[in-house]
Specification:
single chain, 465 residues, 8-stranded parallel sheet, 10 strands, Cbl-dep_enz_cat, intramolecular transferase activity
């Protein structure tokens, strides 16, 4: 195509476009009519043009080759069954495994029998240094993910107590070289409890800062081995996240995660690298027309990939009301395989680079998140804010606001509050209780717990037993 086709026309600035739009609105207010106000406090304009382009110095994926990995989570209550399932799914397209370990007495030799040396994340639900030592001898190239601050925030208690937990965590970080022992930060409880994207990113920054501050400034925990390992980029920050429904906002969120990681690391003269693992959130999934969950998880996985997540593991459409089953697992895995092999989402790294809209979103998310982060630090940091209930209260406020919008129809959930599928009625019982489970136990802080947005609507339509 000839370049002359375009040189014949003068470029049009954003100000000129805005002037034209205001003329065509015939008196209607531009800001009220065309500016979208998000729960995160970001105002989305109707157009983004080169003259308002935001320059972004965006860190690349931790994989460096621009690739992303398809993984699948396996519950490892039974080592033999988990091993059999792991070998099967690796032969059917999965490129990695996330092993959910409920107890320390699992037979590790049986669990890891014939598994590959790399591509395995181990997520223990406990803190046991003897278990980690046994694991390192059997699988030294595994990537261990556990987060003592997530335990406090999500469960309401430390594993043992603050002093013991940090001492054990520091030993874990310094005892093992390389990526076996990284700082892991889990933000899924913030997102699934209703935090806005800005809040999620701000709490991540405070979460990361709490660890770095402890290991760099607390005399009882200081150890040159920990600090130097991160300073040399011999370790990295694992970020375990859930993906929300707002497609472009989520793309920007994952880009912002990397920018914030770099920014917080610079406070300690560290060149931090992040490895992001993402899975769709349960928050917007529903029993009502549950097949729509397949569409939701597809677009969510796409946004995580385009935003630069390193590992994506999908959520089965029926994960919250059916026990693990072959059909649900296979469909979830094949959704990712289609994105990679047929939609070619593995062919271009940082595909969102240069997009005016997403760059602007990334910059605004980062700036607003860092503002909240600074407020948290002025108030004493993440742990102090959890004990004072500040983070829980702010998250609850955001949750309540969104829940009310769903209830009154101002926020659309297809198949739930609009276009319901009357041919797919609710059942009186499900294999798994699909509603929020309340545990009556004593906690140090109010847990950041979550329930799905559609639960109240579902309960009102449940058939009588």
């Amino acid at each position: 195509m000839s370049d002359k086709l375009f040189t014949e026309f003068d470029p049009v600035s954003e100000a000129q476009w805005k002037q034209k739009i205001q003329y065509d609105l015939k008196g209607a207010d531009y800001n009220e009519t065309l500016i979208t106000k998000t729960p995160s406090g970001i105002h989305i304009k109707p157009l983004y043009l080169p003259d308002s382009q935001v320059e972004m110095n965006l860190p690349s994926r931790a994989t460096h080759d621009g690739g992303w990995y398809i993984s699948q989570k396996i519950y490892c209550g039974n080592a033999a069954a988990a091993n059999k399932k792991a070998l099967d799914i690796l032969n059917r397209g999965a490129e990695g495994l996330i092993l959910d370990i409920p107890k320390a007495d699992v037979d590790l030799e049986q669990l890891f029998d014939n598994l590959p040396a790399v591509g395995i994340q181990v997520h223990p639900r406990f803190m046991d240094l003897d278990f980690l030592d046994r694991l390192h001898k059997i699988a030294p190239n595994a990537y261990v993910h556990f987060d003592i601050l997530h335990e406090l925030g999500h469960r309401g208690n430390w594993f043992k107590n603050q002093k013991v937990d940090f001492e054990k965590h520091s030993k874990f970080l310094k005892n093992y070289k390389g990526y076996f022992s990284n700082i892991t930060i889990t933000t899924s409880h913030y997102q699934q409890a209703g935090a806005t994207v800005v809040q999620e990113l701000a709490y991540y920054a405070a979460h990361l800062h709490e660890y770095l501050n402890a290991y760099c400034h607390d005399a009882s925990l200081q150890d040159d081995g920990i600090y130097s390992a991160f300073a040399k980029a011999d370790k990295r920050i694992n970020i375990d996240t859930t993906i929300g429904p707002d497609y472009f906002m989520q793309i920007a969120k994952y880009r912002a995660y990397r920018v914030i990681t770099k920014s917080v690391g610079k406070l300690y003269d560290l060149n931090l690298e992040a490895y992001i693992t993402a899975t769709p959130s349960l928050r917007n999934k529903s029993l009502l027309d549950y097949n729509v969950n397949l569409l939701r998880t597809t677009t969510e996985c796409m946004s995580a990939v385009l935003g630069g997540a390193d590992t994506v593991h999908n959520l089965a459409y029926d994960a919250f009301f059916h026990k693990e089953n072959e059909f649900g697992d296979r469909i979830a895995r094949n959704q990712l395989l289609i994105l990679k092999e047929e939609a070619y989402l593995n062919k271009v790294a940082n595909v969102a680079d240069g997009t005016y809209y997403i760059n602007a979103l990334t910059k605004e998310l980062t700036e607003k998140a860092m503002q909240i982060f600074k407020e948290i630090e002025k108030a004493g940091g993440l742990v102090q804010s959890l004990f004072e209930g500040t983070i829980q209260r702010k998250t609850k406020e955001s949750d309540t606001s969104e829940r009310e919008k769903v209830q009154n129809g101002n926020q659309i959930m297809v198949g739930v509050n609009k276009f319901p599928n009357t041919a797919q009625p609710l059942q009186s019982e499900y294999e798994i209780l699909p509603f929020q489970k309340i545990e009556h136990r004593k906690t140090l802080v109010t847990p950041i717990s979550f329930k799905r947005l559609a639960e109240e609507i579902e309960k009102s339509e449940m058939p009588k037993k």
